[in-house]
Amino acid sequence: MNELNSKISSQDCFIEVINGNVMVTNDCNEIKHNVSEKEGCVDLNIKVSKSKIIPRITFKIQREDFVNIKVKLILLKEAKLEILDESEYLYGSKIEFISELSQGSTFELYRLNIFKESTDNSYLHKCQLSKDCIFKDFNFTNGSKLMKNVTEVSLADENAKYIGSGVVITNSTNCNNSLKINHMSPSAISDCSFKTVSRGNANVTFNGKVIVKKNCNNSVSSQISKGLVMDENANVNLIPELEISNDDVICSHGAASGKPDENVLFYLTSRGISRKEAEKVYIQGFLGEFVDKIDNAQMKVKAKQFISQNS
Fold this sequence. Notes:
It is a single chain. The chain has three helices and 21 strands. It is mainly beta. It has one domain. The strands form two sheets. Strands 2, 3, 6, 8, 9, 11, 13, 15, 17, 19 and 21 form an eleven-stranded mixed sheet that branches. Strands 1-4-5-7-10-12-14-16-18-20 form a ten-stranded mixed sheet, with no helix packed on it. A hairpin with a 2-residue loop joins strand 2 (12-18) and strand 3. Helix 1 (262-270) crosses helix 2 and helix 2 (275-291) runs antiparallel to helix 3. The radius of gyration is 20 Å and the shape is globular. It starts with a strand and ends with a helix.
């Protein structure tokens, strides 16, 4: 095990968790970290300061056993950071993520993960935003036997903004997703989207809750969740919730799930493609609108590739 206490990153820094080692490559003055491992749990503390470019940290998890990681991230005033995780978690995982965004900082998190169908996996992220902060949160996954994703966002000061999209394409037995957004200050904005494609015996649940406190004038919140049920034994359960204690807000939510339109599938097969390929085209069209929320061109391409490979 390597214990590291140093500066890391450039525009592309890599944090690799490979069997018994944690390796960090590339250095810069704007990002400092502390990494240690105890009793199989990797603790990673990252502090980011303001920089001229937007640094990116890429996680590469290649451990051939259960992965247990705790991350604490602090963005200082006006700091910017991208994190990309394209790891394949093939032996199960437990990830806990705590992030604190100081005034004027921006955090972009992209998770495009493959999980082995027979494994258990959990993910918890608690993020607190200060004044004028932005958190962009995009998650694409194929699910597993038992999966639990929990994200809690606190918009703790004026003009804090959260943009999030989740996409689940799964044959797994149970995939439970929970998002809780707390509007705790005036003029905060949240925009949440969730879509799932449920196949085989999959049971996918999404519970999205938005809370707007009494003093939070001019808050804006939008939440939409949609499910596509591809097989008779598959199931989707969408539970949107609004808890509003202020009349001077603009808040909306919507949820819908159902089977694919057989007329569309018939049209596609009549054009000479197989039923399987027609379903793939249908799924890609269903999920495509959420990809357009990603304004990072490189990340948008990665998201489209993930959907294409897992449809």
